[in-house]
Amino acid sequence: MMQLPSLSAFIHPAFWLVLGCAVSSAGTAEMTTERRAFFESKIRPVLVKQCYECHSAGAKKIGGKLLLDSPAEMLEGGESGAAMVPGDPDESLIIQALRYDGMEMPPDKPLPEGVVQDFITWVKMGAPDPRENKPRQVERMTVPDPATVWAYQPVKNPPVPVVKDGGWLRDPVDAFILKQIEQAGHRPARDAGAETLVRRLYMDLTGLPPTAEEVEAFVAALKAEKPGATSAYEQWVDRLLQSPHFGERWGRHWLDVARYGESNGNDGLSRNPSFPHAWRYRDYVIRAFNEDVPYARFITEQIAGDLLAAESPAQRDRQLIATGFLALGAKPAKAMNENFEMDVVADQIGVVGHGILGLSVGCARCHDHKTDPISARDYYALAGIFKSTETLWGAAALQALTAPQTALHELRDSPRAAPREEIEPIILAHKPRRAQAKAAFTYKNSDCLAMGVREAKKVEDCKLNIDGESKKLGASIPRGFVTSLGNVTLEKPLDETRSGRLELAQWLTDPGHPQTARVMVNRIWQHLFGEGLVRTPDDFGVYGERPTHPELLDHLATRFVRQGWSVKRMIRDLVMSRTYQQDSICEPGVGKADPDNLLHARHNRRRLDAEALRDTILKVSGGLNAQPGQGSLIQGRDVLINELGHLHQPSQHRSVYLLMLRNSMPPELTPFNLPDGTAVVGKRDVSTLPTQSLYLLNNGFLVKEAERFAERVLTDAGDEDASRVRLAYRLGLGRDPTAEESARAMEFMREIDLNAVSAEADDQKRLKSTWAMFCQALLASSEMRYVD
């Protein structure tokens, strides 16, 4: 068990600032899958369309001697200096030009505010740029041969390897792992201790820590095991899988993939239309994971739930809500955007591509993909399916200008969330140049509605958009799927009267599909082991990493399909493996030879994500309301809102139920790499910044919960300081303190009592203040924030 550092260190500001600055100074614009996708979808198309005519190697006359068609040229700049300063948009000339601040680019008219905000976001990221540094003339690329891409090959079921130490195995998974460890001349780590293992299980399966009593019961059950009986560990796993908190934990993982958000964002901070019915999709996802809806069915409902038969009105409602998967994306600005309809289609292709297939399909919008075997023809075959689909998002994203007759799904048998009259969103004082058209729909705040999609009135194939421009049309492309994906093909043309979404879902969930099962089992592995077998979970293409254990990946994909696409069954199998139950500490030689743990010869020690950290703090303090949150703070209010921070209200519910507004995510979560909901995120960034240290020191939420924690200790532990320290450790860390920790804690109390608490305070206030500081130190400790 890891020892708690000196408690006095946790409350000293210098400690936090030095630690935070020391780590953050090493930050770079690493080219992650998400950043590559952001550049390709948000930045490159604008550069090509708006800038290359005057600022590329192929331009007839280069304006200002400035080239923008390679990273090095942008940094070198032109006559006015460097075009861009990574990390600092205010000092970047390209941002000043786009803002029309001292210079005006493009010269004819300013770009939409949302586009300018995209460039600001990109520069803040550090301006990650995947382009080559040698500008080249634009040329049509030859689509790579699918046979050269590992992920496009059919899934095979390899034989289980034979290993030397057969006694180490508990599951076939272990044989694939141990084989590579032995080939490298190493041995796996020892088994994790029971105290370590039970906390790992609780955090991985429910996102909440065990109590000290649960830890003790788990340890006692393992010791009392009888030969031949179902193991106590197995019984504990099954109990956690049946917990309603399982769906809250694993549903949140999927919401990252589904780019979940309750407002549109993507149009600058001055315009952020709300999605007041998005929460129904959130609840659908949580329920689906709790009920272990087979993954194939889960995918089918999200793509074509409105086209499926239903045995009851309640089932019909769930299936309509599921299609919110395609409607929740951040819509581009309608104003001054002639590509609006195709931008929505691009978002839907993107979430299916990255989220389900693990492929970057979006590049093919403008040209045949330069690295992966995906042609522009394949892209527009998919685009025809979604162009023949009507997206229902309500009044958001200026839909009043183009609203269909019904702007949302009308539900028949879903619970109606209680109205929240106390929440009054701030409506943007928007003064359009001309009177804004009224929406073609009306509804009451109490109506039972959901975002989603349905069949369009007109089903049609999509014409190829030359260079991605919807006004420059080429040949009509028959609706279909990605033709390069192995042996899964479209046997006959799609029905002329239907969009093809149901057939798309059937194609994606075909047992022979090379991508779908591989991508999902890799996601499951990543959430249990810290890293996927493919460490770029949203990119199985040429740019992505190859699997560290390709045979194991195929073994799991095969098992997943044969076991009925059960997510719970796959999780159960993996946590029952010896590989999962390893300690995170290994022999020094193994760590040196394999610092990134590619062999999985030990368990990865991981920091809690934003939600798990907040939920853990609430549970430890005694402030957690374990009941599901009901509805949303903005339900029933389709409005344009600004000053979004005012809408966040205190809540004791789990973090998954907090208000998730794009451009203004919950302030308790944003310091710890919470996704912004604008893109598919299968793997969150993990950074260490000064803001995190300051949060643990000063944030009002943490201070309040530390005070609540202290009150709990003072109320339940009696008058003896030693008993209070013991209870604080048991509540906070699930264990008793060591003798050294107890002595250090007592010394901490004396230091605080003498130096940190005002002598004018009465005894009771001094007591509470002293223990609140101590409890805050425990809440901020590394043992609290990490899982071994």
From TrEMBL:
Domain of life: Bacteria
Cytochrome C Planctomycete-type domain segment(s): 51-108
InterPro entries documented for this protein: Cyt_c_Planctomycete-type, DUF1549, DUF1553
Occurrences of domain DUF1553 (ranges): 500-748
Domain DUF1549: 172-390
Pfam family, one: PSCyt1
PANTHER family: CYCLOINULO-OLIGOSACCHARIDE FRUCTANOTRANSFERASE-RELATED, F-BOX DOMAIN-CONTAINING PROTEIN
Protein name (database record): Cytochrome c
Organism taxonomic ancestry: Bacteria, Pseudomonadati, Verrucomicrobiota, Verrucomicrobiia, Verrucomicrobiales
